[in-house]
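Protocol step 4 of 5: obtain the predicted structure for the target chain.
Materials: sequence only (see below). No template structures provided, no constraints applied. The aim of this step is simply to have a reference model before the mutagenesis design in step 5. Sequence pasted as it appears in the construct record:
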Amino acid sequence: MKLFYSATSPFVRKCLVSAHELGLADRIELEPASPHPVNRDVTLVARNPLGKAPTLVADDGTVLYDSRVICEYLDALGGRRLTPAQGPARWVALTEQALGDGIMDAAVLIRYEDTARPAALRWPGWVDGQLAKVRDGLDEIDRRAAGFGGRVDAGTIALGCALGYLDFRYASLSWRAARPVAAAWFGRFAERESMVATRPPG
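Step 4 output (structure tokens):
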């Protein structure tokens, strides 16, 4: 398998953490890509018309995107250990995955606003709206975290990658101060071998 990736993308990290947890990391060849909302990577676009990373090319040539689809595919290859097949646990994991993905979406949009949009065209209200999503999402993680225990699934992986991205890009948020339950859980989760192996550079 070949994964087109950006080393700083939280969505790429979510796929790589899943691969490590499933024992599949050594089957994935990493191919650097440069996804950008304006200056599109033509090599990436040739495989994924959306021009986004992660994009996975399976052994049989099938191209898969986005991160949710790739993680589902890896889970199938690894024996379906990360997304419960049915029942309440499935809906919990998928909802928590959506929560993590939503926080990452908002954080990446802020990043693009700050780095890709010309300064004269930036909209502070837009950034404030995205930050509100991040903060509300963090509050929800704090409410849920007491029930996570040692659970490792599609939901907790997405939440862990979201919190890791905030630490990487937005340390000034100091999100732990008002969210001690989430902070304690992430302190443990971030030390998993899969999370350590996929930390962004820098």
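Step 4 remarks: The two ends are 27 Å apart (CA to CA). The CA atoms of residues 72 and 80 lie 8 Å apart.
Proceed to step 5.
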